[in-house]
């Protein structure tokens, strides 16, 4: 299969998804030139604000491969990842991300992707959600314990 | 309970989590002055790169309340959210986010939070993961169909 074929599968997942109250977003994860997982936006039907196509596909691929490290995988997504999905892509350490529609296209049909990108770049006190630092000796201690822990699995 | 009590619960979740191969991160979701969900970082034990404390807590709270909209909730997290969790927080539309440790503290004990923030601010062609635009008529069409769909649930 070609890159365009994989993208077509991601876009088809978006199309199919709308038939069952999902949003117009689909993604596939490709390893060794094969699709190993598919995801689509299930926020509304699943009552899960994190159920974006890329998150769903990454979770499914990681479960299938039995590892949180997808560094030998590519993501094909019908739309440029939002900041949440971009973060997930970095944590999963995928190799390449192919996308079709952009964050601006998504904004035009009513999704907040670009707004969230703009919020992220603002200092905390200028954001629309309040971010308040609240010191905690227990939280500090948890990091100190982690630092001292031997044989921990880093990622 | 006071704000400091809620933060203590989030930090305690981080502490407890390390006993079962989890990372030093915990979060609680508070509604009407009550904890309605708790999450901790289960990336390694669950083989799920998206299983950060805030994502876990948001998913649990949304499932419990039966809605993807957590606009009447606050998040208490033992560490400043990474970009993935920050995105999830915006999608869930929570009111306030209280955090203890910072992204720089997290970087110091080996977590990539700050690195990912830096990557997000770079233009796509300067990032460590390749982002490649691949046009798709099907992806374009999926957005056009969405635009024309009536009675869709927007969020």
Structural class of chain A: alpha+beta
- Strand arrangement in the largest pleated sheet of chain A: 2-1-3-4
User: Measured on Cα atoms, how large is the radius of gyration of chain A?
Assistant: 18 Å
Q: Could you give the distance between the termini of chain A? A: 31 Å
Q: If helices are DSSP runs of H or I spanning 4 or more residues, what is the number of helices of chain A? A: 7
Chain pair forming the biggest interface: A-B, 92 and 92 residues
What shape does the CA trace of chain A take? globular
In helices, the fraction of residues of chain A equals: 40-55%
Oligomer: homodimer
Percent of residues in β-strands of chain A: 15-25%
What is the H/E string of chain A?
Answer: HEEHHEHEHHEH
Please summarize the sheet with the most strands of chain A: 4 strands, mixed
Question: What this model shows, in words?
Answer:
- Two copies of one chain form a homodimer.
- Chain A contains seven helices and five strands.
- Chain A has 155 residues and is α+β, with helices and mostly antiparallel strands.
- Chain A has a four-stranded mixed sheet, with helices on both faces.
- In chain A, a hairpin with a 2-residue loop joins strand 1 and strand 2.
- In chain A, helix 3 packs parallel to helix 4.
- The model of chain A has no long low-confidence stretch (mean pLDDT 96).
- Chains A and B meet through helix 1, helix 2, helix 3, strand 3 and helix 4 of A and helix 1, helix 2, helix 3, strand 3 and helix 4 of B.
- Strand 5 of chain A pairs parallel with strand 4 of chain B, so a sheet runs across the interface.
